[in-house]
Amino acid sequence: MATHVFEEVHISKGVRPLAQHGYVAVEDGRLHLLGSDRRLIASSRVSHVSASPARFSGGRTVAVRVNGTRYNVSPRWGERAGHLVRPGRPERVERASEELLRVVEREGGTVADH
To answer: Are 72 and 41 in contact (CB under 8 A)?
Structure first.
């Protein structure tokens, strides 16, 4: 199976941010949410993960349920420009969110419209 890594991911649980520049990795049939320091936040077999576009996010945030806990993830939310980090471009964030949904579905997870 291919490895997919999404970088510069804003990860939150409800309104509480867990990582401003985290990672989502899908490898060997597992989805991993990693903090900015690459420490594990949550992990599960992709077949046990459900994902959908988060309401009211304009397609830029994905609601991911891992081990019964809902996380909001926004891939490419931050962009690096040298040593600076600036907000991601909305169209790139939206494309990365769509790609994350496709990867979850392709790897056996459940994807819903909402």
So the answer is: no
Confidence (pTM): 0.88
Beta bridge mates, 79: 86
> Which residue, 114, 100, 9, is CA-closest to 46?
100
**Residue 20 contacts by C-beta under 8 Å, 6 or more apart in sequence?**
10, 36, 77, 78
What span, in angstroms and rounded, lies between the C-alpha atoms of 105 and 62? Answer: 13
Burial (CB < 10 A; 0-12, 13-18, 19+), residue 65, is middle
Tokens coding 27: 């490898």
Pairing of strands 50-53, 40-45: unpaired
Rounded to 5 degrees, φ, ψ at 107 are -90, 5
Looking at the predicted structure, is the pLDDT value of residue 114 above 80? no
What three-state secondary structure class fits 29? coil
CA 73, 108, 1, 32 dihedral sign is positive
Task: Look up residue 4 and give its two tokens.
Answer: 């997919």
The answer to whether residue 83 scores a pLDDT higher than 80 is no
